């Protein structure tokens, strides 16, 4: 990188065609190296600072690094920085702050030439981007199929085989990337291979545009020079982001996904970090979490889905013994399938999350119902099953040894005596559903028994579907809960059963006559 300052004539304020040719030559030579070198050369030529600012990624390139915040602020509020020269460049904004002694003509020439070279680099990257995106999608599919060694070998090669397939110069030709932000090596210093993965799954109407924006912000490549790797691909209409790392990340990809989700109104689920071999689990967990996302909370971690305030309130030892007894016939894969099904709320959604057909999921759930000896289509059984799957495991201190004659799978339809009778549980239940008017409580309980299906619930209640929909809206407002979340509905079902003084029978719905009702 050249560090030569301006000539004496430039410092004196004179500037001519020869200076323009020299300036263009220096910028062109820097552009052949990288975008960072190009911006650094521009800063040296104007004897000030230079920043390439992106609305999503922030400061893409900055010379010096301390000028990054000023450059981003200048791009966002140009009227507050009249001394800066700003030009659009490759989807971002080039900001130059020249020294007071630098001629305006010279600054303008540097800015225009730098912006043009950034555009050329961006166009070159765009030409290769389609092939890169296809390869990223293929690598994600291989991870989902369990071929982790193939992927790690592909990403970890130090030869030019993989990178030339994509065009190795894209590692420096992406005009909106960071030179040190997100690399794709599987081996870092000391030969430590990437071991874990964090998965994001995004859906929405603006997925194609979001894919392009996130690609530019993350700037993934196959050049092995750092200890992390980010793969982005579009699978079945979703945008999938798989971040491979050594068991932890700095949160940068999470922040970028959050910004893109807000900007393009997407809903996202996140799962991980998990061992790389458990990529399918992380993939399905992210989908289950996405079904809990709302416009007010557009990205939801999988470890925040399915949790509730109820499980910590239950007595640990009897709770863990009961959960272990009812889940005893199930293998870990069975439990994962049931967890995804209960969290997504339907078999088709679970099938999409697991990458299976809906028929396969239905057949497996029927087999699991036989193993558990319970009717898994019953809303109460589903709520109890989710509660069992939430129970503390061996690492949580809840794996107490089972006594002789412990209850078996036939107890899934009923909870052990005293499990929900504690004062803390009752306080939780009343805090969740207390204060509902009688007709709203009965309508909500009926709707939950029908697995959140409005038509059959309205028929049993003998009210119009529009009436029931209005009541459910009032329930959601009163409870401050997202009724579209299957795990929330399971908690509400348990809370209603724990607080009822009598049966929440549709026949007891307060009425004045016909299909109307009266408030009590």
Report on this model:
The chain has 21 helices and nine strands. By secondary structure, it is of the alpha+beta class. Strands 6-7-5-8-9 form a five-stranded mixed sheet. Helix 11 runs parallel beside helix 13 and helix 13 packs across helix 14. The N and C termini lie far apart (80 Å).
Summarize this structure briefly.
The protein is an alpha+beta fold and 520 residues long. The protein has 21 helices and nine strands. Helix 14 (347-354) crosses helix 15 (358-372) and helix 19 packs across helix 20 (465-479).
Summed up, the helix count is 21
End-to-end distance: 80 Å
Q: In total, how many beta strands? A: 9
- Biggest sheet, strands in spatial order? 6-7-5-8-9
Instruction: Work out the strand percent.
Output: 5-15%
What is the averaged pLDDT score?
A: 77
Rg is: 30 Å
What's the story with the biggest beta sheet?
A: 5 strands, mixed
Rough shape? elongated
Low-pLDDT regions: 1-13, 158-192, 221-225, 394-410
Secondary structure class reads: alpha+beta
Q: Percentage of helical residues?
A: 40-55%
Q: What order do the helices and strands follow?
A: HHHEEHEEHHHHEHEEHEHEHHHHHHHHHH
